[in-house]
Amino acid sequence: MEPFVQRHRRDEAKEASLFLLESWVKEKDGLTAGFTGRGGGKSGEPWASLNLGLHVGDRDADVVDNRRRLTEALGWPAEAFVCGEQVHGCAVQAVGAADAGRGLSSRATAVPDTDALMTDEPGVLLVSLYADCVPLYFWDPVREAVALAHAGWKGTVLEIARRTVEAMAERYGSVPADIRAAIGPSIGPCCYEVDEPVLERVRPLLAELAEAGIVRLAETIEPSSPGHGRLNLKELNRQIMIKAGILPTRIECSEWCTGCRRDLFFSHRMEGGRTGRMASWIGMKGR
Ligand SMILES: [Zn+2]
After folding, report:
1. How far apart are CA 97 and CA 262, in angstroms?
2. How far is the CA of 260 from the centre of ligand 1 (A)?
3. Mean pLDDT value across residues 7-19
4. So what's the pLDDT on residue 286?
5. How far is the CA of 152 from the centre of ligand 1 (A)?
6. How many Å lie between the centroid of ligand 1 and the Cα of residue 166?
7. More confidently predicted of 216 and 224
């Protein structure tokens, strides 16, 4: 069953399009987690309309307005928003209430050079931005900590999923087997053909996963035209999570492909790079 469920909107023009990570949200009072769609925002073409990225040429005022539509739809204050300046790296940064508001209205205040954020403090809404890359969600219900990581092929190869689990263990005492994980809407192998230089960077990781007895190669790279392959980044990240100690039964994986469903999502690859950005979010409300 698809874990990211599209929320019904009363006013499609003015209400942010949201896909809620339904089982988590239903299970835990005060926990919010999900992914945005492209509808219900203020931006014009080619960012129409719920563009949440300040770095793609759109008007800043529209982007900030869109971000406020997101927090409003969640019933959270906009000032709880925290995002990082994503660089396709593997740094994991812990944030807390003192960081609330960072990156909301300006890139200059975003947490620098970081693709993964984590917190154990309520009232902090972790946010990261996407157009095809894979959003990874982590929730430790025992230590009451959450994390988000942004994984394109580079972050995947750098094993940002494993590094996030390790950082949660170190900082919050999380036991990997307690951690729940989810893999959000992103580009599927159907729309993601890569060339040999990328495949070359992925192979050592596959060898390592194979050695650990986890890898299912056929589901990860499918040969296509000569020198090319279709890469399944979602499956690859799922395997890295398993290697990091998360139980397979505690990982939920979205079927939504951002490339196939341009009616619902932005796709950097399918729209020639001129498009908006979606957001993943996770946060715990205080009592
Ligand atoms: Zn597709």
Report:
1. 35
2. 4
3. 94
4. 74
5. 15
6. 31
7. 224
Q: Percent of the chain beyond pLDDT 90?
A: 91
For the chain, which residues make up each domain, given as ranges? 4-188+250-284
Q: Look at residues 212, 96, 120, 112 and name the one whose alpha carbon lies nearest to residue 162.
A: 212
Q: Compute, in angstroms, the gap from residue 267 CA to the centroid of ligand 1.
A: 10
Tens digit of pLDDT for each residue in 47-75?
Answer: 999 999 999 999 999 999 999 999 999 99
pTM of the complete model beyond 0.70: yes
**What is the pLDDT confidence band of residue 242, given thresholds at 50, 70 and 90?**
very high
Label residue 287 by pLDDT band (50, 70, 90): low
Which band of pLDDT confidence, cut at 50, 70 and 90, is reported for residue 216?
confident
Q: Are 206 and 220 a contacting pair, CB within 8 Å?
A: yes
Residues lying with their CB under 5 A of ligand 1, a single-atom ion: 188, 190-191, 257, 259-260
- From the CA of 73, how far away is ligand 1's center (Å)? 28
Q: How far is the CA of 108 from the centre of ligand 1 (A)?
A: 34
Rg of the chain over CA atoms, in angstroms?
18
State the chain's mean pLDDT as an integer. 95
CA of 262 to the centre of ligand 1 (A): 9
Strand order in the sheet with 92-94: 92-94, 116-119, 145-151, 134-140, 180-183, 251-253
Task: Output the CA 194–ligand 1 centroid distance in Å.
Answer: 14
Alpha helices in the chain (DSSP H): 22-27, 60-74, 153-157, 160-172, 196-211, 233-243
Give the Å distance between the CA of 274 and the centre of ligand 1: 18
CATH number of 4-188+250-284: 3.60.140.10
Compute, in angstroms, the gap from residue 192 CA to the centroid of ligand 1.
7
107 Cα: distance to centroid of ligand 1 (angstroms): 30
